[in-house]
Amino acid sequence: MSIPLDKPELLKAQYRAFSYQLPLMYVILLTNTWVLAATHMSVAPAWLAVCIPIVLTLVCAVRLMAWSRSLRVTPTHEVAARALSRTNRLASIIAVAFTGWALLLFPYGDAYAKSHVAFYMAITVIGVIFCLMHLRPAAFTVAAIVNGVFFIFFALSGNAVFIAIAINTGLVSGTMLITLLIQYRDFTRLIEAKIETEALSNENFRLANLDSLTELPNRRAFFSHLGEAFSQAEASGQSLAVGIIDLDGFKPVNDLYGHGIGDKLLYEVGQRLAGLCAQNIHLARLGGDEFALIISRPSSEPELLALGETLCTALRVPFIFAEAAVQISCSIGFAVYPDNAGSAADLFERADYALYHGKRTMRGKAVLFSSDHDAEIRRDARIEQVLQMADLQEELSVVFQPIVDVRLDETIGFEALARWTSPVLGSVSPVQFIPVAERAGFINRLTRPLLEKALTVAANWPAGIRLSFNLSAQDLTSPEGLLHIISIIHASRFDPKRLDLEITETAFAADFGQIQSAITTLKALGCGISLDDFGIGYSSLSRLHALPLTKIKIDRTFVTDLHRKPASYKIVKSLLALGRDMGLDCVIEGVETQEEVTALRELGGFLIQGYFYSRPMREADISAFLNLRSSLPFQNRARLH
Ligand code: C2E
Ligand code: CA
Ligand code: CA
Question: Transmembrane residues, as ranges (predicted)?
Fold first, then answer.
């Protein structure tokens, strides 16, 4: 029945429950005492009827005040234990004092006054026991002292009425104690159930905020932590940075080695990153192959970039598994509060923008959000706004760039390239407006008029000349979009067998299955399928093999000055070899000089597109271009512009 020292939560609950009843107990005790004192003031001596009650009241008041002061702080379980054992000890002293005082009053006064003493003792002890229900030792001590003394005293009095009262009181107190024991057991169970529920909900909370694969905080935890950290930074005027990490080359690993290795890789990436994150960095996995950092009080921008470099370098070290050794890299985008953003959401978005920008321009590096990015965001927002309202049929046009087979020096086709002349913004490059329309999700509204225009022009070309047309991932991911493209091709006078549709590798990041089936459908129409910007993406070979490709287009970045850059030379060489192995034609883009053409011929690259032959031209210039070239002697045909 002692205090449950081994159950801190129960102890604290007991303390809390008792705290509310303690003042009530003293109110009962003192009120009853003063009422009894009042009925005896005229008959008993003043020291007994007045002085002792004053002393007892003072003692109780001191105790109450001490207690109420300690109530202001939530007690630790040691404090609660000490307070409760003190109460246990005090209970017996107070019981003895009040009982003694009451019995001293007994001899004074008539039978009514005597009965009042008996009634005072009986009723007060019941009230006190009730108030002490959460402190069983105190309740039992008080019951034993008061009832014991009461019983012995009145038994000795020889008065039958008082003996009867003593028996009644003893029985009621006994019943009260039994009820109290039952009640206490229920109380204990309730508290234990509550503790269990709390533990369970804590565990649920932990699991709901944990990424089960990497055992890092998940997206939900990240954003809730970001909210808190941001409020803190705002309040204290300190800086805060967000970094978003995206793995480069994760998807091919997943494709090539399966999800088992993919999962292991993500776990190991999480471990490596966690190992490099200092105390002030909160690391989380946002989902897929994206991780994120919240950095409290970053020291400086160069140091953030240095941290980014450290993380990138660490992830470039190959991961060795029993099944395979895999190598990936990562790009990181950082944004800093208060320099780059005024809210938590902005901070995240800007870090994401820096990442997006980094992925396009310097993969495998850490990029800090800059004022240039800010200007770009504004510019893109403006482009989006104007483009949404534009009369696309009127403002969009198509130009054509020839693709030449250098072996026979023959133009084999043209690539259609979009142009937008806006009455508001003037001429806007497709490098700007195409990504904006893609990100805003309305590229298909552009694709339709562009494809119609390109097909209308191409329908007038000589039979041997092909048309290449660029499609975005989104053109292929919705069944309606695909149907629309097919209906435009059918409605034109151009033979689909002369049409090549160009798709970039980045399109496969969206939904490989969907893209694959869309491409297969288009191939079945007779269209050729070209893989655009080959070499800069990270598609695995297994993925490329799964697509019914007819051509690959080697990106300009590898072609520029390849005769002077051994690295570029080697890459083009191996890309060409890869194309040959896969039985695909290779178009080499962005060829600008005779030296590049010569080097490419050496390597066996014959299909060439670039400023060396011609810049993209208007429809009206095409027949002149074709006629002029076919009329030139073979060796003079190149370089017309
Ligand atoms: P792309 O498909 O890789 O197109 C080739 C780009 O390289 C064209 O830029 C072309 O003008 C440029 N180019 C060709 N030869 C040379 C050269 O020798 N040197 C240099 N420096 N550049 C050369 P453009 O027309 O600005 O198009 C840029 C990109 O916009 C295209 O890249 C393509 O991704 C996208 N795009 C253009 N038209 C369309 C379209 O109708 N639909 C879609 N979805 N995307 C389009
Ligand atoms: Ca293209
Ligand atoms: Ca290209």
Answer: 20-40, 46-66, 87-109, 115-133, 138-156
